[in-house]
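Let us walk through a complete example step by step. Step one is to write down the protein sequence. Step two is to encode the small molecule, zinc ion, as a SMILES string so that its atoms and bonds are unambiguous. Step three, shown after the inputs, is the structure prediction itself.
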Amino acid sequence: MSKRVWLILLGILMAALATSQVVLRSDTIALALTEVGLRSQMVPEPLPVETLTVVVCGSASPLGDSPDRAQACIAVLTDKHFLIFDAGSGSQVRLNQAGLPLNRLDGVFLTHLHSDHIAEIPDVNLARWAMSGTAEPLKVYGPTGVSQVVDGFNQAFGLDRGYRVAHHGEDFMPKTGGQTEAITIAPGVVFSAAGLTVTAFTVDHHPINPAFGYRVDYGGRSVVISGDTVNTPRLWAAAEGADLVFHDALARPVLEVMHRVALDVGRDRAAKIVMDVTDYHAGLEGLQASADAAGVRRLVLYHLVPSPPNALVAGFFKRAVVAPSIMAEDLMRFELPRDSEEIQGP
Ligand SMILES: [Zn+2]
Ligand SMILES: [Zn+2]
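Step three: the predicted structure of the complex.
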């Protein structure tokens, strides 16, 4: 290439760099671009269609520190109802990013009361209250003990509720709407409205008892959320013929390496915790075969133990399933039109 061409290319590069510096430093340009971005995000809620929609609002377990994954959360929507299953740390950001209608959130269903499934309840609750202006408390369904969790959050956030009402006005944010209401459930049908049914069943996350999984049915379509469990026949019995099963998944070989390295560097407490974790989650081996035997159409691995920090670890989860089964990523979205066999999604 001639010297003249090089000089022209260098000039173009310098001009691009100078322009990007001007853009980054200009409030006016930054605000204009921000407005364009907000207008593309804050679109009106789409007209309801008769579809069972499922969104991954959190796919991580507490083990691992991937910034790309929130902790356990699966959102399920129909034209009339919106439910979330667990609300782990970071899931509120994912619900917002997915553009889900928090103003019409009907309830949070907890699989069990471990911290990584409940930590985001206050933020989800605040978002629902602020977006809806409802006077109705958010219903939080869960196993025995859920009232202790809910009472604690209500007490801890009592001052915050007062501040919000004082600032925005009781008419805009009625104080009772900022509360959460515990609903203690047992296995069986726990929610039924407008053709949407939620059935709870027990799983095996010993010593956490009870721990539930949930099956959601709507318009001939179905999705199952395992919560935390080992691979148990009870779940596959409940998941018989389901369109989608979101299942807890643990990459045992990776945890064994983590355990060994922690021991070698003298981090004995970390080594013990990593080993303890292996006995109450589902190892990858056999999950796809169990799903196939139950006639499940797509298995989606979530609550990943550990949350994969890179492609090498992610490979263990990806190789454990056969397409169209898949490893979950945050913000994955599946659409199941009623009375069909179609699954639109990644
Ligand atoms: Zn757990
Ligand atoms: Zn968990």
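Step four is interpretation. The CA atoms of residues 6 and 12 lie 10 Å apart.
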